[in-house]
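Protein entry
_____________
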Amino acid sequence: MPERLDDLRSQFAAIDHQIGTTTALTTTDRIFQILRQAIADLVLKPRETLSEKELAVVLGVSKTPVREALIRLAMEGLVLTLPRSSTFVAPIDPDDLFEAMIIRDALETTAVRLAARRIDHQGKFHLRENMQLQRDAGAGGDVAAFHRADDELHRLFVKHSGLRRLMTMLDTVRLTLNRVRHLATPVPGRIALLTEQHQRIVDAVVNNDDDGAVMTMRAHLDALTPFVEALLRDRPELFATSTRSAAHTRPEAALPQLSWAPARGSVLFSAAERMATKTSG
């Protein structure tokens, strides 16, 4: 346990550094952001028990802001508390994950289409600069640096789309997806593959090819699907057992705009069935 606390202290400090001091945050706000990012990054893993006392020691604060932050995380569905029992990180809900994939497809393809139409010379420079950061991170085997550059690239697409509120919507969706995305990145060759996919999107955007930007972004998003399905099958301890509505006979109805659909019989297919039932009902 002492080793685990030391590890958390180091990783929480790194997250705190990333958050920075650009905005004035209360202690509770800062603790909330640190723990929220730690859950998204799988520093705090699904079903891991959360002790207010231990977290307060690690973060160097009293238990009060920790307790308040945990309440806010529970409101977001990231933390669960059992009455007269323990507080722990919520497992990943397959239905929430599937819905997030659908929403992200719609939002990010819209973002790159508009970015390709609106981006200026400075924006193009920033995209190329970001790609160099990704290549450097990949060459150095720095997964954390790659994640930061990856996140920033998607933020740049949104910034240059001109849609001011889109990033707020995407942040909520990406929080759900990041918990599985961080499991995918360490797979051998994954960073090189993602960098290649990102380069294709960037090439389309800087060439003002809006259709090409949409096509390459969708291919990029689609590529996560087989890994997610394998993860749902092979790592069930990370996921919740869905309690939503019964299956529908045509789950494809939940996927009107996507270029992919989950394999029949997979957990994602079952989630699509439930979504189709809700849509048709």
